[in-house]
Specification:
By secondary structure, the protein is α+β, with helices and mostly antiparallel strands. The protein has 3 domains: about 45-50 and about 335-395, conserved putative lor/sdh protein from methanococcus maripaludis s2 fold; about 55-60 and about 255-325, Elongation Factor Tu (Ef-tu), domain 3 (Beta Barrel), CATH 2.40.30.170; about 70-175 and about 185-240, no CATH class. Helices cover about 15% and strands about 35% of the residues. It has 5 helices and 22 strands. The strands form 5 sheets. Strands 3, 5, 11, 12, 13, 14, 15 and 16 form an 8-stranded antiparallel sheet that branches. Strands 2-17-21-20-19-18 form a 6-stranded antiparallel sheet, with no helix packed on it. A 4-stranded mixed sheet has the order 4-6-7-10. The longest helix has 23 residues, at about 1-25. The radius of gyration is 42 Å and the shape is elongated. About 30% of the residues are buried. This is Peptidoglycan binding-like domain-containing protein. It holds the Pfam family PG_binding_1.
Length: about 400
């Protein structure tokens, strides 16, 4: 039994040794084959469909198209005693942005400042401008005729009352020394009732303090010191005076933004790329919804940068910033089939791509419409099917492929 075990063990040892020797031994042909690199596999990339010029993102700031600096009329003097608006607020016609010497200063839409204090019975271009400003503020007074009559006076009372003040009371037709009224004269003295004082709205004459026993008022006056006219309202407050400011001729009381809100961004020239006018952008506006904007101008600056301007109908606020994405910066007519330039092979004056079909590739003649960087826009030549987005094409000229 012992001899049998030894014999089996010897057979096993000899067998293992023979196997190890066979593994270690190989012919020169086998060694050479093992040393050769594997056959190269073609590199395949997918075709894409989109715009030849890639998307562009930028941060823009919303601002009004125009800025107007409002300075005081010559008649406005004193000290700013209260400021009731702040930057970003919207001023509508008839608003009171601040008070001077405790009295309100209104803003009305108009092409020029009032050049006098307006009294009942006055007529002229300034009265006509005042009437148009009151109409823009929403006060009914009939057809503007340039005459400061009872209906216009009632509108002035309403404007002051809406702001919590009484209009100035102006003495008109004060008697002269002989006891007869001065022909067409208006007494220069005016008084302003305190805040919340009652005021007539129908032009009824009432006594005026300091005007004499026979002095009367046929309606409220309009002091040029209490009205600022600006070319366009409503407008956004970009800057405003402060309490304690002493009024001077060149004091900037208000800076107002008017016109449509514009989105702007200043970019380095190299970042503009193919961006062009009419390119469409998308962004999230103040309402939280996706809005669109359109490039309206590309303006070079003195520093070598470019200011991009866009208009939008989205809900935006002057002074706020937004992030825009422009998917089609060059405003191309539509999406195109895109391939890497390295996948396009030129041979005998024609261009081809090799589209994968199973384990083989199909040679497809194509025309290159345009290239940007390493990307080419291609279309099939001769009506041949040129593949579509997602199809694989061989990358690299000279790569051996099996054409099916």
């Amino acid at each position: 039994m012992k001899r049998l075990v030894l014999a089996v063990a010897a057979i096993v040892v000899v067998g293992v040794g023979a196997w190890l020797l066979a593994v270690r031994m190989e012919s020169p042909q086998q060694a050479a084959a093992r040393a050769e690199p594997p056959a190269p596999e073609p590199v395949v990339v997918a075709l894409d469909r989109g715009y030849l010029n890639g998307p562009v993102s930028m941060t823009v700031e919303a601002q009004n198209q125009q800025s107007v600096v409002v300075t005081p009329p010559a008649a406005l003097t004193g000290v700013v005693t209260s400021v009731d608006r702040s930057a970003g607020d919207t001023l509508s016609p008839g608003s009171v942005p601040f008070r001077v010497n405790g009295r309100p200063v209104f803003v009305l839409e108009g092409a020029f400042a009032l050049y006098r204090d307006i009294r009942p019975g006055d007529e002229g271009d300034d009265v006509l401008a005042l009437q148009k400003g009151l109409l823009a503020a929403g006060y009914a007074l009939g057809r503007p005729d340039g005459k400061y009559g009872p209906r216009t006076q009632a509108a002035v009372w309403s404007m002051y009352r809406a702001a919590g003040y009484a209009a100035p009371e102006v003495a008109v037709g004060a008697p002269d020394a002989a006891g007869a009224p001065s022909p067409g004269a208006s007494a220069p003295e005016t008084t302003a009732a305190g805040t919340g004082a009652a005021a007539p709205s129908d032009g009824t004459a009432v006594p005026v303090a300091g005007g004499g026993a026979a002095a009367t008022v046929k309606g409220p006056g309009v002091l040029q010191s209490e009205v600022l006219t600006v070319p366009r309202l409503p407008a956004v407050v970009e800057g405003i005076t402060t309490v304690g400011t002493r009024i001077a001729a060149d004091t900037g009381l208000l800076t107002l933004g008017t016109g449509q809100v514009v989105l702007t961004s200043t970019l380095p020239q190299g970042s503009v790329g193919a961006l062009t006018v009419d390119a469409a952008a998308r962004f999230t506006d103040d309402s939280g919804t996706e809005a669109t904007a359109r490039v309206t101008a590309l303006a070079p600056t003195e520093t070598g940068e470019v200011t991009v301007s866009l208009l939008t109908e989205g809900a935006v606020r002057a002074g706020s910033s937004y992030v825009l994405t422009i998917d089609n910066p060059a405003a191309e007519d539509g999406e195109r089939l895109l391939a890497p330039v390295a996948a396009v092979v030129t041979r005998a004056g024609r261009t081809y791509v090799y589209v994968r079909e199973g384990m083989a590739f199909r040679e497809v003649a194509v025309e290159v419409e345009a290239t940007v960087g390493g990307v080419a826009a291609i279309v099939a030549a001769d009506g041949d099917g040129g593949g579509d987005a997602g199809d694989g094409v061989v990358l690299g000229e000279g790569t051996e492929v099996r054409v099916g």
